[in-house]
């Protein structure tokens, strides 16, 4: 075709709104060096560790607090009570394995996204722990 030059559009210069290749490289390097992205990466792990420790230490605190607050009023623990302590120990072991399986295994995808199942489960667990502490504080600690 003899008139191809008249129908072809060619970009020969830049406008005031465009970026050069060096600007794009500099911006991407600044984003890689920024602290904010690293903070977001470890925020999920930090919240999982905190929630996991609170969930794991709550039953132990429920067992230890009466011995610390009212050591003279407690009665001797019999065989049935010791069996309950063993039951609590096994339940804590299962809870520890479940917390690891849900929150600390590496995800299959490395994309930055919110895992809806983990977020809903963490919210539900946090609500349960808060309600247990509220019940323990109102019914047990206030009654003594």
UniProtKB/TrEMBL annotation:
Its main location: membrane. The chain crosses the membrane at residues 42-64, 84-103, 115-135. It is a multi-pass membrane protein. GO terms for cellular component: plasma membrane. The keyword Repeat does not apply. It is found in: Cell membrane. Pfam families: Strabismus. Keywords: Cell membrane, Membrane, Transmembrane, Transmembrane helix. The keyword Ribosomal protein does not apply. It comes from the Eukaryota. InterPro entries: VANGL. Belongs to the Vang family. This is Vang-like 2.
């Amino acid at each position: 075709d003899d008139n191809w030059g008249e129908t072809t559009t060619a970009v020969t210069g830049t406008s005031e709104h465009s970026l050069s290749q060096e600007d794009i490289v500099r911006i991407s390097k600044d984003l890689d060096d920024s602290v904010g992205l690293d903070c977001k990466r470890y925020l999920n792990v930090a919240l999982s560790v905190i929630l996991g420790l609170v969930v794991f230490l709550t039953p132990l605190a429920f067992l230890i607090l009466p011995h610390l607050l009212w050591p003279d009023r407690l009665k001797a623990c019999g065989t049935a009570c010791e069996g309950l302590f063993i039951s609590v120990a096994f339940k804590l072991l299962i809870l520890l394995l479940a917390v690891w399986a849900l929150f600390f295994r590496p995800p299959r995808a490395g994309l930055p996204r919110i895992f809806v199942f983990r977020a809903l489960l963490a919210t539900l667990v946090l609500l349960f722990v808060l309600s247990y502490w509220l019940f323990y504080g109102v019914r047990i600690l206030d009654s003594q």
